[in-house]
Design brief:
90 residues, alpha+beta, 4-stranded mixed sheet, globular
Length: 90
C-alpha cells in the first residue's frame, strides 16, 4: 500500500498497471479495498489508482473532531491527491 501526504493527512492508495490514469473513488462506508477486484482487469489498459479518503481505512479516527469530514474537504483532498500523483488529467 502506498501513501501520499495530502492537505496535512496521509492518503493511502492502491495502484496497478500503467498508461492513462484512471482514478477510482469509493463511496460512504467503503474504502480503497472496495476496488480490489477491478484493479487487475482495469490495470491491463490503465494506471489504476484507488485512494482511501480522509478518515477511512487504514487511517485511524476516533469519531471526534469531524469538522474536516465534509464533501468539500474530500473534494480538496482528491484535487490535491491528483496533483500530488503528478499523473496529469485523470
Amino acid at each position: 500500500m502506498r501513501v501520499l501526504h495530502v492537505n496535512g493527512h496521509d492518503m493511502a492508495y492502491a495502484e496497478h498497471g500503467a498508461g492513462t490514469p484512471l482514478l477510482l473513488l469509493h463511496g460512504t462506508l467503503l474504502d480503497q479495498r472496495w476496488w480490489a477486484p477491478q484493479m487487475v482487469p482495469l490495470g491491463e489498459r490503465h494506471r489504476v489508482v484507488a485512494p482511501s479518503l480522509r478518515h477511512y481505512w487504514p487511517a485511524p479516527w476516533n469519531g471526534t473532531g469531524g469538522g474536516d469530514f465534509t464533501i468539500a474537504q474530500h473534494v480538496e483532498d482528491v484535487a490535491a491527491f491528483i496533483e500530488g500523483l503528478g499523473a496529469g488529467p485523470v
